[in-house]
Amino acid sequence: MNHFIYRDNELYCENVPVRKITEKIGTPLYIYSHATLKRHFRVFSDAFKGVDRLICFSAKANTSLAVLRLFSNLGGGLDIVSGGELYRGLKAGFSPRKIVYSGVGKRIDEIDYALKTGILMFNIESLEELEVINKRAGLLKKKAPVAIRVNPDVDPKTHPYISTGMKKNKFGINTEFAIMGYRTAMRLANINVVGIDCHIGSQITETGPFMEALSSLKSMIRDLMDYGINIKYLDMGGGLGITYDNEAPPDPVEYANAIKESIGDLKVKLILEPGRVIVGNAGILVTKVLYRKSTDDKEFVIVDAGMNDLVRPTLYKAFHAIKPVVISGEGEMTADIVGPICESGDFMALGRIMPKVGQGELLSVMSAGAYGFVMSSNYCSRLKIPEIMVKDDKFYVARKRQKYEDLTRGEKIPSFL
Ligand SMILES: *Cc1c(COP(=O)(O)O)cnc(C)c1O
Fold first, then answer.
1. 205 in ligand 1 pocket by Cβ < 6 Å?
2. Which of 57, 81, 93, 305 could in theory staple to 72 by disulfide, Cβ–Cβ 3.0 to 4.6 A?
3. Which atom of ligand 1 is nearest to the CA of 239?
């Protein structure tokens, strides 16, 4: 359920007509619904009622400070993958004790930053990383709380670029090596073993792969007990999918019940790292039709948002529903919705059947709240676009549109030129 709805043939976000926002702020822009964000977070968290749990929103899905502050206010934690996300998380108000840090390539400066901050745990992705964290913790006179990210070798049945828990992927440590990792970790003076972790992929639309991963983790927890290693946190990662087109992923309650049942009376605190399922359908990208043109066998609708604003269609061949902001009702067309960038991969949709639209009309690219703005770039020296948060009948600029001056900030022409 989300709060992007039509009233009198016009798209609203909560109680604000989308058209009104564009009249003030221009296009393209991202719009997030506060009510949807809040609802999705609550539904997900409540689904795990009765279980000792921490919901660590996956920052990389949407790092807007406004969005992060909301989840922090709702009692959430944060899953980060970089020093930059740690910085944002702290700025948004998260307690370090609710932050978990994943990622295969943590740099020394990032490790030090997290150690000084005192985060809840590092999710370790290689034995070499474990050694480095031990060394850095020693130098800083700290004890590093760690979990090992296990690669359980399960097929999440999703796009190969967002599959992360198969043997061939770079993520985690496979089960045999993970046991060895834990035994090493126990011997390291500045490491405190606290958890076990996995994250098998994204946009997963069935419970099976999660259950397979969980059963692998449970069996590891039992093996570790035999070695006298006690696991306090069981981190199941994120990855629950959403409906972009006609996918039918399990809802959070179904997902949570399956996990709860499988965990049974295992004495662990559960950590979850949902990203897309919380923010995906809480955001849209609004763009304006600049031009139309047709060839013998094709219609093109050229819009003012490009692959630099939303890369998912071209990067993952992802489907995003595209809807007119104001329905005028004059028949259908089949068109490629393309952006202004000088790349043939610059499209929002190909061969899309949709209501006829004309120059100047507004289109809403739906389900753009996750992996939207965060993956945007300044390619072609295009300005990064605003992020707006709507709450009830008001809207707030959570990020301003960039200006040309922002493009050259930090640049210097060498003096010999
Ligand atoms: C990306 C990521 C997530 C979130 O994935 P979603 O599919 O958006 O839920 C969680 N944990 C880790 C380690 C990730 O890299």
1. no
2. 93
3. 7
